[in-house]
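Morning - nicotinamide-adenine-dinucleotide inputs below, output right after.
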Amino acid sequence: MRTLVTGGAGFLGSHLCDRLIKDGHDVICMDNYFTGRKRNVLHLIGNPNFELVRHDVTEPFMFEVDQIFNLACPASPPHYQHNPIKTTKTSVLGAMHCLGLAKRIGARVFQASTSEVYGDPEIHPQTESYKGSVNPIGIRACYDEGKRVAETLFFDYHRQHGVEIRVARIFNTYGPRMLPDDGRVVSNFVVQALRGEDLTIYGDGLQTRSFCYADDLIEGFIRLMNHDQLTGPVNLGNPGEFTMLELAEQILKKVGGKSKLTFHPLPGDDPKQRCPDITLASEQLSWKPKLSLDEGLDPTIEYFRKLLSE
Ligand code: NAD
Ligand code: UDP
């Protein structure tokens, strides 16, 4: 199986490349290194089944492959808000280029969509049938609406051209290889705690998120991609739900030290609660996450401890 992974040098992309290589695929990893790093896939360079290509998904590309995983897009709010117009282009043009290629060569194509398509949700937990509550002109819209248009393109290519699509709606996922300055909450809190700095709680810290460990998520990707008919969208995430205060306390308990909590303004349109209903993934893919937040934090903290000591 020849497989293209866009955004393959990023946090999730690099774990996906590892898994595909382990499963015997020939992998082409494509990235523009905006938030990805060569060091994430350094251990794969030299492997005859692995190829690294610097390319931006907003420009067309052509590879002869059997499968395409489209992960290219910055995922952390500070990174995707850095150049919001580029973020929308990355989602929309990236999806079009992957789908155009898939149509031309008859490849199956996977989209890394997001729980952000639900916006600030009015139903809880979120099921795939919920249509979402997204502010189309807010500071998160470049990401949320970009991903929503990408889903639209995926389903229209499927209906209009018969392209085989797989769409996963990913909920907050964490683990080794996140950037220390990524800006997302788990990496921020862990890095702050390890440096003995105060933890930055945005708002009152009572907003909730559900955190999935990277390896669990990648297993879900593979099961969805290999399913013979399920297009999705399928929620993939860990239904364990925590407030940001609970997350901070859990990390401080594990890391120790003298860090305190400091409170900062809540960014615009920050969703108040988020938790996946994973009934569909559990019934159709026999998938559910194995690691609790408590278990997944240990290897994550160890990764950052080593990284910060280098
Ligand atoms: P990440 O920022 O580590 O990875 C994104 C990768 O895409 C990086 O390697 C980056 O350099 C690359 N990229 C960005 N713009 C590009 C462009 N124009 N051309 C080529 N490459 C480009 O983030 P991640 O957490 O690994 O997320 C991977 C995918 O999963 C993203 O599409 C993201 O939206 C989605 N997702 C992630 C989460 C999560 O919690 N980690 C949740 C929902 C959705
Ligand atoms: N958050 C926080 N402190 C930080 C970073 C984030 O309190 O240093 C909050 C943020 O406001 C949000 C939650 O943590 O409510 C998750 O943020 P993240 O950026 O990880 O992901 P997203 O908001 O996209 O789910």
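Note: The first helix runs from residue 11 to 22.

O.
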